[in-house]
Amino acid sequence: MIEDKVMSKAEELNKRGIIFIQKKQGDEALKYFNRAIEADPNFKDAYYNKALVNLALEQVDKAIETIDNVLIKDPNEGEAYFEKGNIFFYYKNDVKAAVELYNKAMYFGIKNEAIYYNMAQCMEATGEREDAIKWLDRVIIIDNKSVEAMMKKAEILIDMRRYEDAINCYDGILRIQADNEGAYHFKAVLLGETNKVEQAFETLKSAEEILGKRELLEFDKCLLYEKEKDLEKALNCINSGIEIDDKNILYLSKKASLLILLQKIEEAKKVYDYMIEIAPEEMESYFSKASLLMLNKEYEEAFKLYETIIEKSDEENPYRINSYYYKALCLKSGNKLEEAKEAYEEAVGKYNLLIVKYPYDHQLHLLKANSLRDEEKYAEAEELYEYILDLNKNLAEVYLMRAKNRLGLGKENEARQDLKMALEMNEAFKKVIDLDEELSKLLA
């Protein structure tokens, strides 16, 4: 007959502490873990549990001190190095210290999926992606059904643009979990990105047969149809997604953009109105509708929306910051020139204040430069565009804006060069240029 093991006093106190963790009463839990340590200073579980509560109470340095007490008693305790490494990685954001501690933990015998996975994350954080994959492969060797490791490996492979290898990872995941929606999603996206559209549709069809209709998968189909320039089918898919969740702002926004491409402007306006109704605190919907009204030359209504954004949002909200400029542009486009002049001056003043706080934010400088350009202060604007490009020469939008400014300075050749540079970086700007009579003439 096997006798029940008698629980020691330290174990009993530790067990009580765990009960208080489950009750989310951290201070009470600490009391019992401390008593467990007093009862048996070599009872390591109490130290680890105490450190866990320290972290829950945001006492990070105390958690490290608690783990150090284990190492003082036993410098060869691998688990303690592992736990301390986790604190440095997840709470201190000190990757170098975490790697050193994980290496010590492995030296003293900790060799499992958890430490290999964490090493992979450390390698990824330091840009050592090949090494990260090697550590994840170790996880998968130990547990060939570790979906978490496979998903992380695929994510890193995507960052490395090794799309075929990533697709193989997702295939492996689907052999283990045939109902993994994320794997279907990412595989379909990658197939679409690599112009294997038919295979992408087949992947989504397989997903639907197992999972039924899912809003994410409908969104994926929408993007594929949009890529194929079949906007009506794209719209049907996004509508199917919205039927599942009619308050999904991302999907509603996509629907509005498709309606605009289909020249269904009034319907798009109604979608934006609905978005504003269900999420009145989200400024993106106001801004998107205002942009549409600007394109449709409904300047007064657009102006009201920019005013609303400025009134309702925080000072550093990006939509508010942009609205200073576009509010002035509305007035200028509506031929309210005196009011526009005041609005541009106000916008420049606002941007000056923000630039003091964020001197390297190119978007602030660009908005200020555009405001100066629209006021026909071409020389000042030119100097600012140059400064922005000195900060970062890879901003296609800035070349486009500077081209417009250079026309004001009578520098047609330089403007033409800027347009060519913008198009080299982003071919999509061709549509913008075609809509501008002055700019389109430069490329004729």
From TrEMBL:
SMART domains: TPR. The keyword Oxidoreductase does not apply. Keywords: Repeat, TPR repeat. Signal peptide: none annotated. TPR repeats lie at residues 10-43, 44-77. It comes from the Bacteria. The keyword Cell division does not apply. InterPro entries: TPR-like_helical_dom_sf (IPR011990), TPR_rpt (IPR019734), Ycf3/AcsC/BcsC/TPR_MFPF (IPR051685). PANTHER family: CELLULOSE SYNTHASE OPERON PROTEIN C, TPR REPEAT-CONTAINING PROTEIN MJ0798. This is TPR-repeat-containing protein.
